[in-house]
Amino acid sequence: MSQSTSIRRQTERLGLGLTAILAVAMIGLLIIDALRSYPLVGGIYDQARIASWWLDHYLGTNVFYHPFMWRSIATGVLIGVVAPLVGTYLVHREMALIGETLAHTAFAGVAIGLLVSATTGWSGSLMLVALVVGILGALGVQWLAERTDTYGDVPIAIMLTGSFAVGTLIISYGRGMTGISVEDYLFGSISVVTPSGARLMAVLSVVVVAVVVATYKQLLFITFDEQAARVARLNVTWYNTLLIVMTAVVVVGAMQILGVILVAAMLVVPVAAATQIARSFRETLVCSILFGQVAILGGFALSISQGLPTGGSIVVVAIACYLLAILVSGRSTAAISTH
């Protein structure tokens, strides 16, 4: 192993380790926020608020003292882990459009939840409704792909336009009713991240990471040679469904900050940047997560300092990382090994 390769791997491991520590810390903050009514946890929560006040004081801001900002940052950090993690499989299978499709499906779920809330007074979680509808949409895409003779991306296109049309009709029907407001879900907003939505994202992130770790070899096999996987009697349909459902889960969580229009960016752009410099699939996974974290943290920094929308800031930073990776790599395509 050359010295440059050794330094490269050490840097990747360091970055991945720091990302893991940050993600665990963010989950810890969400747990403290959820359990703050208990005396012991309440004391830790109060100390965290004081530390946030001092952070605002030194940075000259007025955002970190507010709990909703930390919930948004925690949600963003977790998105920066699971979106590129799942997106790496999607990009290598040429399924990048599926993220956009499921985002539009989740939008229909939000529309349904908003309409039900406005007409019946129901006060449940919109993210939970979006999650259920998103998963049903994912299963619908898989069902269409398995049972139709059309080209591979046709069922995806049909679901994309159909679900957005349904969401538009529902919003149009409910226009003027109290509670019908979808702009934040279309374009993303940190105000959309509710305590329940942030906690749901934490739980789903742990589940997605655990599933990917447990099924890494099977998903890798199917990604690069689906026919060989069928010959080897691997349940390809099951693993395809699992991947699409995980995508729906990630999309619903990311939609809170990025919005329906931009949500697919975190599934694709960090992976596209990683493929420019990575030499293997495993390295692509690691680098895409690192680029995802840079995009999330850099996007939040840009948003807070300049008063810009968070979702757009994150995507712009992600694209900047992609362009920088192209310049650094000096190649148009990357030869990726399956190791």
TrEMBL record:
Signal peptide: none annotated. It is a multi-pass membrane protein. One of its GO terms (cellular component) is ATP-binding cassette (ABC) transporter complex. Pfam families: ABC-3. GO terms for biological process: transmembrane transport. The chain crosses the membrane at residues 12-32, 68-90, 102-120, 126-145, 157-176, 196-216, 236-254, 260-278, 285-304, 310-330. Keywords: Membrane, Transmembrane, Transmembrane helix. InterPro entries: ABC_BtuC-like (IPR037294), ABC_TroCD (IPR001626). It is found in: Membrane. It comes from the Archaea. Belongs to the ABC-3 integral membrane protein family. This is Zinc transport system permease protein. It comes from Natrinema salifodinae. The lineage of its organism: Archaea, Methanobacteriati, Methanobacteriota, Stenosarchaea group, Halobacteria.
